[in-house]
Amino acid sequence: ILSTVTERVDAELMDAAGEDLKVVANMAVGYDNIDLDAAGERDVVVTNTPEVLNETTADTAFMLLLAAARRLGEAERLLRSGGWDAWGPMQLTGPDVWGKKLGVLGFGRIGQAVARRARGFDMEVLYHDQYRNEEAEQELGARYLDLNELLGTCDFISVHTPLSDETHHLIGATELDRMKPETVLVNTSRGPVVDEASLADALAEDRIFAAGLDVYEEEPEVHPRLLELENVVLAPHIGSASVETRDKMAALAAENIVAVLSGEEPKTPVNG
Ligand code: DGY
């Protein structure tokens, strides 16, 4: 099976595929759509496509961060609707990005690639992760903070954790309340890491400044209240959507399938 994030690969699907099923190659780095226990019980190898999408996904996170801060979506809607009648001194102003504090939540390969971009904007990089990574801290001049400190300190928070039982609604009402009113929240990881209803409340009440989202709890559905708000930039899960990167993801997924079917080790397995 060559799957993408839109397919749930569970016990039922694997049983329907039958005993010949040897490999599920997910064309994504995240594999929360696949039941790894069910795969293990059936001796099915599961693979993903890490690394090849790091830089492209980091670009998307930074694009959303800039667009949300500088109100690009709202500005474009104003212009296209014919509502832009003149330049105004404080029209459509948002906070500066350069020189501010960026909090990276989940300091894996994509989170670190975002941190590298932030350095070019003279940002102070702070991070939180399950594990401290002192080598990356040194390389990127990043500082570790506990989650609550990160939430209360940063001007920008970019989420890069995988989805698991531990990270489901990692950002909920309590966490949003800890953020400053100037905060811009960006999520390019998985929708359910952020509680969308609580985020819609926080944005509607201007408890945080803005958000940039690429992923949603019930894709392709988007929480209806988010769709009504001006201070959120919404993208349809395009984090890795560059031509080059999608080609590399497809090729890696195909190579993994060929390897397993030839009795060889796949390049990027996620289970044993
Ligand atoms: C991934 O790779 O996990 C993305 O969400 C799909 O590009």
- In what order do the strands lie side by side in the largest sheet? 6-5-4-7-8-9-10
The overall strand count is: 10
Relative helix content = 25-40%
Low-confidence stretches: none
Order of helical and strand elements = EHEHEHHEHEHEHEHEHEHEH
Average per-residue pLDDT, rounded, comes to 98
Largest sheet: 7 strands, parallel
Q: What is the CA-atom radius of gyration, in angstroms?
A: 20 Å
Which oligomerization state do the chains in this entry correspond to? single chain
Distance between the termini: 17 Å
Write structural notes for this entry.
The protein is of the alpha/beta class and about 270 residues long. Helices cover about 40% and strands about 15% of the residues. The strands form two sheets. It has a seven-stranded parallel beta sheet with strand order 6-5-4-7-8-9-10, with helices on both faces. Strands 1-2-3 form a three-stranded parallel beta sheet. The structure holds (2R)-2,3-dihydroxypropanoic acid. (2R)-2,3-dihydroxypropanoic acid (DGY) binds next to loops.
